[in-house]
Design a protein that fits this description.
The chain has about 140 residues and is mainly α. It has one domain: Orthogonal Bundle (TerB-like), CATH 1.10.3680. It has helices spanning about 10-25, 30-45, 45-50, 60-65, 70-85, 95-105, 110-135. Helix 1 (about 10-25) runs parallel beside helix 5 and helix 5 runs antiparallel to helix 6. The mean pLDDT is about 90.
Length: about 140
Amino acid sequence: MFLSLLTKKEKLKFLDIAVYMIDIEGKPEAVEKKLISRIYGELGREIVDEYTFSKSDSIDETIEYFKSCNRAVKNIVFLNLVSMSMEDDLYNTLEHLFLEHIEKELEISAEKRRDLMQIVYDERDVREKAMRVIKS
C-alpha cells in the first residue's frame, strides 16, 4: 500500500527489507510468492528489473537508511511490513520480533502502530467482503 509514493531508492530499500522479512520464515510458500508479486506490481517494472532479488548484506544498514527518512516513508514501510506479516494468517514469532525491532528503530508510536494495523485489518475486511459478494 502506498509504495508508489516512495522514491526509487526507497522502493529498492523497501524490497531489501521485504525480502529479509519473507526470508525470516525460510523458503517462501505460495502465499509469500503471491504477496511479493503484488508488491512488485505496486513498485513498478523499472524497480523490479533493477532489483537483484537477493537478501541485503546488512539489514541494519537498510533499517538505518529508513531511520533518516521522513515520517510518511517510515509509516509506509511499517504499514507494508505489517500487511506482509498478516498475509498468511499464521502467527510467526520471528516476524513479530522483527516488526517490534522496526517499530522501535523507526520510532513508530504505539498509537501510530494501532492506526496502521487498523488500516491493514480494514483492507482485509473489504477484500473478504468483496470476495463473498463476487462468489454469491
